[in-house]
């Protein structure tokens, strides 16, 4: 009855490029600020606590005439079945008719939009002459964060790599990331990549810090962070996760992608529950900064935090672009649903 386009991982890797995704996510944030979008309540369910769960994020892009959802499941025992632990699927619908339009593998889209989001925080909130970036985490998302930040913040000259679990992994990642950036993102810049052995020291010399880990306790302490530092926190996307000292929120300029999500499931959650910050003390959502309605940092001494919880609108817009590009190239599979 309905012709539905299906895009798999290979197609998405072929059609999506990071600069266009950065532009698309900026557009998402500005549309949200202009009340041209809607976010629906999140759904989270644990099938077996600590073993298997799933969450659904959904929303409506009014200007694009689409709504949809992304369902992500985590099944920890999949490693014994030679299956990915995380599996994501995005579905797109026509908001004029409700008809299904597309089903997409969510993995690459999630990586691209998450990397873009962290980089956008740095683009608008970091000092203009930022030279040193610290990447905390060496998981799947890290390469997307590094690629996007090098594109969005061209002044970066050095990238420090820290794996919280292993110095050896930090060294391996630092040695291999340049090749990955060229192969996967066509990013070829004269940048130095160094593994971190002294984490506190690395935090203290960094202008831009991106955190992308599943941590549930603060890794970065307030007194390690120098004046003028920007932090984009992308790892905290559900209740209980935390990557940075909640005391940082007392004096920092805090910008978020969505206030409701930030205080409930984002990096801001711990500080909010501790009474360190309230909703009215959150400086802004990022869309207002992009539009110029809010200034962002006020001086080179400000510490700025971007709490990127991840919103469904990012997935919808990136999916829309991917569908348009796939149509032009004749890629994807059409099914009769």
Would you tell me the overall average pLDDT? 95
CATH fold name of the largest domain? Rossmann fold
The CATH homologous superfamily of the largest domain? NAD(P)-binding Rossmann-like Domain
What is the number of strand segments?
Answer: 18
CATH architecture classification name of the largest domain: 3-Layer(aba) Sandwich
How far is the first residue's CA from the last residue's CA?
A: 6 Å
N-to-C series of helices and strands? EHHEEEEEEHEHEHEHEEEEEHHEHEHE
Features:
337 residues; alpha/beta; ornithine cyclodeaminase, domain 1; Rossmann fold; 2 domains; eight-stranded mixed beta sheet
What does this molecule look like?
The radius of gyration is 19 Å and the shape is globular. The longest helix is centred in the middle third of the chain and has 19 residues, at 107-125. The protein is built from ten helices and 18 strands. It has helices spanning 9-15, 18-33, 107-125, 142-152, 167-185, 199-205, 259-265, 268-273, 286-291, 312-329; strands at 3-7, 37-39, 43-48, 52-61, 66-75, 86-94, 100-105, 132-136, 158-162, 192-195, 208-211, 216-220, 230-233, 242-244, 253-256, 284-285, 304-307, 333-336. With 337 residues, it is of the alpha/beta class.
Question: TL;DR of this structure?
Answer:
By secondary structure, this protein is α/β, with parallel strands linked by helices.
């Amino acid at each position: 009855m309905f012709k539905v386009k299906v895009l798999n991982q290979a197609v998405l890797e072929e059609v999506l490029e990071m600069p266009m995704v950065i532009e698309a996510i900026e557009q998402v944030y500005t549309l949200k600020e202009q009340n041209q979008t809607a976010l629906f309540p999140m759904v989270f369910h644990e099938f077996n606590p600590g073993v298997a769960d799933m969450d659904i994020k959904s929303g409506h892009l009014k200007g694009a005439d689409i709504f949809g959802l992304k369902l992500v499941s985590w099944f920890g025992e999949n490693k014994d079945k030679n299956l990915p632990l995380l599996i994501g699927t995005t579905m797109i619908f026509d908001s004029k008719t409700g008809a299904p339009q597309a089903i997409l593998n969510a993995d690459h889209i999630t990586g691209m939009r998450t990397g873009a989001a962290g980089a956008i925080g740095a683009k608008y909130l970091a000092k203009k002459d930022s030279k040193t970036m610290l990447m905390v985490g060496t998981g799947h998302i890290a390469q997307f964060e590094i690629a996007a930040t090098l594109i969005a913040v061209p002044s970066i000259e050095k990238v420090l790599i820290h794996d919280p679990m292993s110095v050896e992994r930090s060294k391996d990642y630092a040695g291999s990331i340049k090749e990955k950036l060229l192969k996967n993102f066509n990013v070829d810049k004269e940048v130095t990549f160094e593994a971190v052995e002294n984490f506190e020291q690395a935090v203290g010399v960094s202008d831009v810090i991106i955190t992308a880990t599943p941590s549930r306790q603060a890794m970065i302490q307030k007194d390690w962070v120098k004046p003028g530092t920007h932090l984009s926190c992308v790892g905290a996307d559900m209740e209980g996760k935390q990557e940075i000292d909640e005391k940082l929120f007392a004096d920092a300029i805090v910008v978020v992608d969505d206030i409701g999500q930030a205080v409930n499931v984002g990096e801001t959650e711990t500080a909010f529950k501790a009474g360190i910050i309230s909703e009215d003390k959150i400086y802004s959502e990022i869309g207002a900064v992009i539009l110029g309605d809010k200034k962002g940092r006020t001086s080179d001494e400000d510490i700025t935090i971007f709490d990127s919880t991840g919103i469904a609108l990012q997935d919808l817009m990136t999916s829309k672009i991917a569908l348009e590009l796939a149509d032009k190239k004749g890629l994807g599979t059409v099914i009769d649903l």
